[in-house]
Amino acid sequence: SKSIGTMGDKPEDAPHNCPGTESEEAGKASACAGCPNQQLCASAPKGPDPDVARIAQRLSMVKHKVLVLSGKGGVGKSTVSAQLAWHLASRDLQVALLDIDICGPSIPRMVGQEGQTVRQTAAGWAPSKQQPHLDCSTKTQ
């Protein structure tokens, strides 16, 4: 399969007059005819994500955010995340730990919450309480 790297909002292998992936004409313009990305561009959502402002507003109440990320599996991201969360919670700090691993979240197993998932409420996601200062949640697709 061919990689679709981008230059701005235009795929590297796009025709010269490509309207760009964010354009309303993406995948529909005459310049898109024969482009290997035509179907992908035509079906992709356009414009800014409408939830970004709402998410930013809700996260503004969180003083510190830590993201544990790697492009490789099996390197200990979940272990580091769980241990860091347990340590901070043990110091009476409010901690939330969210595992969004779509291939199989391991945080619930590490913190004794297997079978627990995020509950959807009118206010958003509601995590399960693990201990007084640690909320743990898992979101899978």
Overview of the molecule:
It is a single chain. By secondary structure, the chain is an alpha+beta fold. Helices cover 23% and strands 17% of the residues. The protein has four helices and seven strands; from the N terminus they run E-E-H-H-H-E-H-E-E-E-E. It has helices spanning 38-43, 52-59, 77-90, 107-110; strands at residues 6-7, 10-11, 95-99, 119-121, 124-126, 128-131, 134-138. A three-stranded mixed sheet has the order 3-7-6, covered by helices on one side. Strands 1-2 form a two-stranded antiparallel ribbon. A two-stranded antiparallel sheet has the order 4-5. It starts with 5 loop residues before the first strand and ends with a strand.
Question: Secondary-structure map with pairings?
Answer:
Blueprint: E1 6-7, E2 10-11, H1 38-43, H2 52-59, H3 77-90, E3 95-99, H4 107-110, E4 119-121, E5 124-126, E6 128-131, E7 134-138
